[in-house]
Amino acid sequence: MAGRMFLQTPGPTNIPDDVLSAMHRPAEDFSTPAFIATMTDMFAQLKVLFGTDGEVFAYIANGHGAWEASIVNLLSPGDHVLMPATGRFSLVWRDMIKAFGITYQEIDNDWRSAIDPQQVEDALRQDAGHKIKAVLIVHVETATGAVTDLKAIRRAMDAAGHPALLIVDAIASFGCHELKTDAMGVDCVIAASQKGLMMPIGISFTAVSKKALAVSKTVTAHREYWSWETRMAMETYRRFCGTAPMHMVWGLMHVMEKIRAEGLDAIVARHARLAEASRRAVAVWAEGGALEFNTIDPAARSNSITCVRQVGDTDMNKIREVAREKFNVSLGGGLAALMGKAFRIGHMGDLNEPMILGALGGIDLALKYLNVPHGKGALDAAATYLAETA
Ligand SMILES: *Cc1c(COP(=O)(O)O)cnc(C)c1O
Questions:
Q1: What is the CA(35)–ligand 1 centre distance, in A?
Q2: How many angstroms is it from 152 CA to the middle of ligand 1?
Q3: Averaged pLDDT score across all residues of the chain
Q4: I need a surface site. Which of 46, 52, 330, 374 has the fewest CB within 10 A?
Q5: Predicted confidence (pLDDT) per residue in 27-49, tens digit
């Protein structure tokens, strides 16, 4: 195969060559003052990155590990939570909660929409006895492409005067949408390395407010490996409950340097702009009547992924297969209820204008190759927008 395969899956995402290079070195003695200093610096920098005066915990795990860490440190068996549905990821997280003996009440979702803050407020107002211990929000639902307005959720919780913790799955949003833990009143932000953070899979995070840290001390759930208390012990060695993933530490240090150089706000703006280019193209393709946006409300279409949904019986798997096998663009498929009904364009992390145009170009080729009815001029619409906003 000549040239590069374009990785436009919504995780994993492109790992920049300089991040790979930063990790390409021999292992070292982890007990040296130099490595301990690096670890100490890393955790200090993580607190800045996530915007919290609380703590950031890092795990040698994918996002599912950080999900579990948030549950066992913040909720006890028998606790009750409010869990607005968003799509497949909220369902999997919910099932995990159930497995820990926690009860939940759901707010329904059509898998095409963000969470409605009014419904959150209403549910909290009805809970006069404050039985609900936490509100669990998937910020960007990677299965549907919808982003929930976290500030509106925080306002809804405040308006209801409810003390529940706000726990946010930001695995697909961190580094793509604005998310400042303390300033936005979030008690626990869950993130993972392989999406907006441009890293290999295998390190995940919980950024935790002071309020949540205090709650974690009262929790009765069994925990040891995931325990925040264990991980806060004095020796740096305990921060990972065992040997630190040195290469991930070096990679992450380099990623944080890159993020500082570009600026987190500028990174969010870049994501918004590249996502809009993707949406401009999808809007034109949709004129052919064979596909449409999965997320109905334009304001709820995320910066992280665009989920494109079939109209009628358009074979979305075939489009995805041809894009990958013939034109070297890897897309995400439809998940769970959207299986076979959608493809997803990931636009998170290390991405620039020609990369998104290349990805859109591969999709355009697949539509033409398969004779899928589509509006003409999608690439021009995307390029025009990018040129106008440069
Ligand atoms: C990817 C993703 C997960 C799961 O992360 P893993 O690293 O695959 O365990 C959870 N939630 C959201 C919103 C995601 O995008």
A1: 30
A2: 23
A3: 97
A4: 330
A5: 999 999 999 999 999 999 999 99
Domains of the chain by start residue, with CATH = 6-12+263-388 (3.90.1150.10), 17-261 (3.40.640.10)
Within a 10 A sphere around the Cβ of 287, how many other Cβ atoms? 14
Upper half-sphere CA count for residue 186 (Cβ side, 13 Å): 29
Report whether residue 169 contacts ligand 1, using a CB cutoff of 6 Å. Answer: yes
Q: Kindly give the distance from the C-alpha atom of residue 63 to the centroid of ligand 1, in angstroms, as a whole number.
A: 5
Determine the average pLDDT of the residues in 215-233. 95
Instruction: Give nearest CA residue, ligand 1 atom 9.
Output: 63
pTM over 0.70: yes
Q: How far apart are CA 145 and CA 114, in angstroms?
A: 9
Pair of tokens at residue 220: 């009765």
Residue 299 CA: distances (Å) to CA of 88, 264, 279, 283, 292: 21, 21, 12, 14, 15
**For helices 264-286 and 378-388, angle between their N-to-C axes, nearest 10 degrees:** 150
